Amino acid sequence: MTKDMSTLLVERQAASLNRKVFIKTYGCQMNVYDSQRMGDALAKDGYQPTEVMEEADLVLLNTCHIREKAAEKVYSTLGRLRDLKKLNAANGREMTIGVAGCVAQAEGAEILRRAPSVDLVVGPQTYHRLPDLLKRARGGERVVETEYPPEDKFEHLPAAAPAVTRQRGVSAFLTVQEGCDKFCTFCVVPYTRGAEVSRPLDQVVAEAERLAAAGVREITLLGQNVNAWHGTDASGRALGLGDLLRRLSRIEGVARLRYTTSHPRDMDDSLIEAHRDLKTLMPYLHLPVQSGSDRILKAMNRRHTAEDYVALIQRIRAARPDIALSGDFIVGFPGETEADFAATLRLIEAVGYAQAYSFKYSIRPGTPGADLPGHLAEEVKAERLERLQALLMAQQQAFARDCIGREIDLLLEKPGRMDGQMIGRSPWLQSVFVDAKASQIGDIVRVRITGAGPNSLSADVVSAGAQQKES
Ligand code: 5AD
Ligand code: SF4
């Protein structure tokens, strides 16, 4: 069967059943990727996507458990959904409600107890079983599936039909690794996503080739601990993320590669050399450090010091001088003193970040951090977060201002706010507004940065469409 025929078949099947699914995604980019793959699996099962919750036959919440606020949001949405489900039932329409993602994994059957309108709870490892689970849920059973099945979810999730992949634009995510064995004491990920697992080389290459064939120019490799990725080549030689990036950079049409999120302990020499050698590997690195205090880093079980981190950054910058750094920070970890916090500010000054994400410590039940002494008052955390964010924001703006006058390659992604305007991505992941035509989406154009706003840059085209591939 040709690819187009299979697409047609999927579309016809979906139209004949005429069921609609609304998927709401919370949290990280891996959830975004998982939601797309669930959407693909459901399309094959006759569900068409809808953006309108009210008209959906199936509402699926793909949830996040990383901080308390994220987890609680799910229950307030479920409260609203309960009313909608009742209203639909009064009009003779059935609505199935499913909870997926990390809250599903962490809370399981507890969700059914707290939210009686939920029909299905499914953890991140069993999305490939979704069509079967839904059949059971539609039959009236309240289904909870949070086991770690022996089969590999990625191998069993269907690949998206080419037409669907094409709609996803020129930049795509590709999960290469899932789970985490690091057990930072604040973090739920090792419990919700399980042990570290890498997708085999062949599977990753095949998916990247499929994306490239569908017009994707930029691929971001995803993993909770992506630089712990490991595999083997055909002759059984051990490979790391640096090798994987080298292999993927040879795929025709893939102009840009990125990866996220990394742990400092797994930045090996081969990966640093990949930053030096590969033009396709963008000069941007998200490398969370969480704190600049050795005492707190130890209590967090990060297994490196502030000095180790700064030395690592120096090695990475020596390999790729134009690299932009991004990080994650937690303020108010149990026992954090004003002196510990000052050490974090000093580390930020020493590194200089182009971008950063920062959070107040949030107690996660079941993690070792929850049981530590010395939890801080909410006001202390809020006040420290404010000071930290002021510094990070100043650095981010300084980085953006520094870009003015530079000539860079811009990947055109989507239309801008005004007619004749497009939004592209800089190598450093900034959004850049430029005058260009919609037909140029997917092109990499040479531009000169002319201005810097709070969240985006503006630029003039130097020579359009000259470059199709950056290597
Ligand atoms: N409280 C606050 N922030 C957290 N993160 C993870 N767990 C917690 C927590 N319990 C942050 C870390 C991590 C990012 C994804 O979320 O900074 O790198
Ligand atoms: Fe969580 Fe990242 Fe630490 Fe793993 S390395 S436990 S995902 S913060």
Number of strands: 21
Main sheet record: 6 strands, parallel
Report helical residue fraction.
Answer: 25-40%
Spatial order of strands in the largest sheet? 2-1-3-4-5-6
**Proportion of β residues?**
15-25%
Cα distance, first to last residue?
Answer: 35 Å
The ligands bound in this entry are: 5'-deoxyadenosine, iron/sulfur cluster
Task: Summarize this structure as a short list of keywords or feature phrases.
single chain, 471 residues, alpha/beta, 21 strands, 38% helix, 23% strand, disordered C terminus, binds 5'-deoxyadenosine
Structure summarized in a few sentences:
The protein has helices spanning 3-17, 29-44, 68-90, 101-107, 109-114, 130-138, 153-156, 162-167, 189-192, 201-213, 241-248, 269-277, 294-299, 306-319, 338-351, 378-403, and strands spanning 19-25, 47-49, 58-63, 96-100, 120-122, 143-145, 171-175, 177-178, 197-198, 218-222, 230-232, 238-240, 256-260, 284-286, 324-331, 355-360, 407-415, 421-425, 431-435, 444-452, 456-467. It is an alpha/beta fold.
Write the layout of secondary structure elements.
Elements: H1 3-17, E1 19-25, H2 29-44, E2 47-49, E3 58-63, H3 68-90, E4 96-100, H4 101-107, H5 109-114, E5 120-122, H6 130-138, E6 143-145, H7 153-156, H8 162-167, E7 171-175, E8 177-178, H9 189-192, E9 197-198, H10 201-213, E10 218-222, E11 230-232, E12 238-240, H11 241-248, E13 256-260, H12 269-277, E14 284-286, H13 294-299, H14 306-319, E15 324-331, H15 338-351, E16 355-360, H16 378-403, E17 407-415, E18 421-425, E19 431-435, E20 444-452, E21 456-467
Parallel strand pairs: 1-2, 1-3, 3-4, 4-5, 5-6, 7-10, 10-13, 14-15, 15-16, 19-21
Antiparallel strand pairs: 8-9, 11-12, 17-18, 17-20, 18-19, 20-21
Helix pairs in contact: 11-12, 15-16
Residues 66-67, 186-187, 288, 290, 328, 330, 359, 361-362, 364 line the site of 5'-deoxyadenosine.
